[in-house]
UniProtKB/TrEMBL annotation:
It comes from the Bacteria. InterPro entries: DUF3597. Residues 1-40 are annotated as: Disordered. It holds the Pfam family DUF3597. This is DUF3597 domain-containing protein. It comes from Erythrobacter rubeus.
Length: 121
């Protein structure tokens, strides 16, 4: 499981476990779950409900967002996350961290809380 999947699952739950419960024997018509995009406000509302959210600056800090969902915010993990998001030039600068945070929040909202297949590993 990729770092983005871990962040998403901490916020919304585990898609794969939900799929297994809902349809343990996939058929030709069943496939990955897809949800309609959700608003940034809905994403933020769900994150705000995580215990400890009030103590961290997760709305703007990728480091604090990762801490909130209990993922090591080390440079190596942030670099791996950036690569999952398609950013191969991540250097760890403040600008890179702001962009990474924005990319993660946007991707969660676009996917309706479901991690797209290409970001699962």
């Amino acid at each position: 499981m990729g770092i983005f999947s871990s962040i998403k699952n901490a916020i919304f739950g585990d898609d794969e476990k939900e799929e297994i419960k809902a349809d343990p024997k996939p058929t030709a018509t069943s496939g990955p779950k897809e949800r309609a995009p959700i608003s940034q406000e809905e994403v933020e509302k769900r994150i705000a409900n995580i215990p400890g959210a009030e103590d961290l600056n997760w709305r703007t800090s990728i480091v604090d967002l990762m801490k909130l969902v209990k993922i090591d915010p080390s440079y190596e993990n942030r670099k791996e996350l950036a690569q999952e998001m398609g950013n191969t030039g991540y250097s760890g600068s403040a600008e890179d961290n702001i962009k990474l945070h924005r990319d993660v929040m946007d991707e969660i909202a676009k996917a309706g809380g479901v991690v797209p297949g290409e970001l699962k590993n």
